[in-house]
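Whiteboard transcription, Tuesday session. T.W. wrote the structure tokens on the left side:
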């Protein structure tokens, strides 16, 4: 899984209320979530994001509540990958469960001008602008397997004797 989309860079401590405001979490319409993703942080985000883009953040991305709508909204808006220095653990697990690729890298200097290529399964992020390689925190194999299946439900359908 290699991601090369345009990037959108944000800072530290972006909580789930900033990713998708609570007033929109009562809908089951994923396009509504996508229309309002990051609107309080960056009102122009929905107009500039497109399928395959990459969101870059700093520390503690997805902190706050445990809403599964936060990674769902990002994925539905077209984000293919979120790269952060670290994630709130519940966001991390929710992202994997719904099939949104994420990578944790240490402190980085990725900017809006960077051109990156992320090799999700290998855990490498290449910043072609700075000719720099970032090594990701190793993801457990079962989480990689879940991502490759498109999320936990698909993984369980394929690998378990569950009738979902």
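and on the right, the sequence the group agreed on:
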């Amino acid at each position: 899984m290699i991601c090369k989309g345009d990037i959108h860079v944000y800072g530290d401590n972006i909580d789930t209320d900033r990713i998708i405001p609570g007033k929109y979490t009562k809908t089951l319409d994923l396009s509504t979530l996508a229309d309002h993703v990051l609107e309080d942080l960056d009102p122009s985000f929905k107009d500039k994001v497109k399928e395959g883009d990459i969101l870059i953040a700093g520390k503690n991305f997805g902190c706050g509540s445990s809403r599964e709508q936060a990674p769902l909204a990002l994925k539905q808006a077209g984000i293919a990958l979120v790269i952060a220095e670290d994630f709130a653990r519940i966001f991390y697990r929710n992202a994997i469960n719904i099939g949104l690729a994420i990578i944790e890298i240490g402190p980085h200097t990725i900017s809006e001008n960077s051109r990156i290529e992320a090799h999700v399964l290998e855990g490498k992020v290449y910043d072609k602008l700075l000719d720099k390689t970032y090594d990701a925190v190793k993801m457990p194999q079962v989480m990689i397997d879940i991502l490759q299946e498109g999320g936990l439900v698909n993984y369980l359908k394929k690998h378990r004797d569950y009738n979902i």
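Someone added at the bottom: The mean pLDDT is 90.
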